[in-house]
Structure formats: C-alpha cells, structure tokens
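Hey, sorry to bother you again with one of my protein questions. I've been puzzling over a protein and I'd love to understand its fold better. Take your time with it, there's no hurry, and the full record follows here:
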Amino acid sequence: MRAVVYESFGELPTIRSVDEPECPPHGAVIAVTATGVCRSDWHAWLGHDDTVLLPHVPGHEFVGTIVRVGADVRSWSGGERVTAPFVNACGTCAVCAEGRQNVCPNQTQPGFDRWGSFAERVIVHHADTNLVAVPGSIDDATAAALGCRFATAYRAVTARGRVCAGEEVVVFGCGGVGLSAILVAVAAGAHVVAVDVSVAARDLAVRLGAAVAVDGEAEDADVQVSAATDGGAHVVIEALGRASLLRRGLASLRPGGRHVQVGLLAGADSVPALDVGRVIALELELLGSHGMPAHEYPAMLDQIARGIIDPSALVGRTVSLDDAPSALAAMSGPAATAGTTVILL
C-alpha cells in the first residue's frame, strides 16, 4: 500500500510503498478514504512525542471502510463506514469500566505509538470498543475530523467545560480544535469570543458564530477580551498549546470560572509557571481535556444529523496523499487558509 513515511524527525516525509497491516484478533483494518492533517501530527513529526518510533507513518483522525476484522471481533463484520477516537482503549481495564476510555492506561494511538492513517490502510485495535459507525449524510472530508479535532472540541466544551446557554466563552487559538469549539459553544447558546493572530482564522470564527474576534497580538488584547465578556469568562478553551495562553486564559476568568486546556504544551512550555494564588482565591477550575470515548459519540452525531452543528464548515482545503508531506510541513509556518486540511484518498 502507499503511505506517507518519515525516517527522521523534522525531515520532509516521502510517499512509499509499504506492507499492508496484519489484522490483530481484536482489531480491524480500515481502508482510509479521508484523514485530517492535525497539529498533533506535526508535534509527532518534530519529535515532541516520545512514543513515536522511526520510521513512522503519521495520521490519527480518519474515516474509512472496514476491510478485515479479527476473529475476536463481535460487533463488526466488514464493509461498514467508520471512524474511531484517536485513543484506542483496551475496553477491559478499570478505567474503561468507568467510561473513561479516552484516558485508558493501556491505550494505543494510531499515528503515534502505531503507524497511522496517512496511508491506504490503518489498524484500529480493540474494534468492539473503539469503532464508531459514520452516517452516510456526513461526507468524507467532514467525517475525517470526528476522530480527533471535532470530537475533542465537542467534549472539551460540553463535558469538561460544561458550557451553558448565556455563558461567556473565550477560545484562544482558532485552528481546527478552536474553530470546532466555537461551533459547539455557539450551538450551546454561549456568547463566544475568539482570539487568534490570523485575520483569516478570526474571520472564519465570526462566520461560525463568534460574537467578537480579537487579534491575539494586539497590545490591548486582554482588555478587549475583558470588555467583551463583561469582566470575565465563565469558560476559557485553550486550543493552541502555549504556556502564555494558559496564563492569559486563567487571567481572563471571572470568579468560579473554568479553564479547559486542550492544546498540547511541548518543550519549555510543558511545565508552565501559573498564578496558583489566583486559582485558589477565585475558586477557578483548571481542567484537562483529551479526546472523546466512542460511547459518547452518539450525542455529537445526533446534533450533526439534526443540523444543530455543522462541522463541514470547518474544512478549509482538501489535498491528495501525494500532497500530504508538504501539508504537514506547512504547519511550521503561518496557515495558508483558515479551517482544517484533509487528505482525500
């Protein structure tokens, strides 16, 4: 099969012919029809994830059709159109029994500790726990983000941020996750303020329903955020992964506010200095958010089916597998277009 492969971190990947994956007894092999180019893939390519072993095939958010299932799989037979959370949970441990498959201690992740979906075939382990049927009404380019960016944002806003109608929500970083969070928060009835350095990203944020868009590099950006939220946000979503934005997010909250950290903090940012005194004095909540387990997908898919949320508006451009290496490398610079980039196979 054809796949995107890199043999050293930061080196431009190439398209190569590699062996098709063997199907594990508990897993399934998926013929990939679309896969997203996510900032997490970029982090892995640069060596920010110590689970990645070289040579490596990136990619972790995808949609496709089941072409093989293992002997131990009971819920799938082949031919179904599916996606999967980027965290492939074991389904049998105590954490999974609590419904927290997205933080399973025995997890595997395609595109990180396993070869991923920038290829014609990808394996999903523990298929009965992790596969999710995708309705035919959702096109491939849109469905590709359901395994990571959109599902991650959906859970960050609804389950972790507990956003309610009428609340003030600030989203720092208007890439794929941030724009998805705006879409979900607006659907929940929140008043949303978007913060980003990109004019194109801010414009798209407003088209998706953000009431106010603030230039993150403006000298008075934080003053603008405070004014737009009537003195402070109920919920902040940090969707980029910067220690400075984590600190600004906490400073933007009103008493009792909730900061949801979705963006991955790498390198020197990974252990940030925080004003814990403010967290204590104002009873702020600092919440991590990591993906979404498969059993929580039905509520999200129902909202999509009923037109309450429309993730198709997030797709910025589509590219071929041959263009995937340059699309991944392009994430090192300013975004050429707002919205997500999706590889169509």
Remarks:
- The chain has two domains: 2-149+292-344, 161-288.
- The chain has a mean pLDDT of 96.
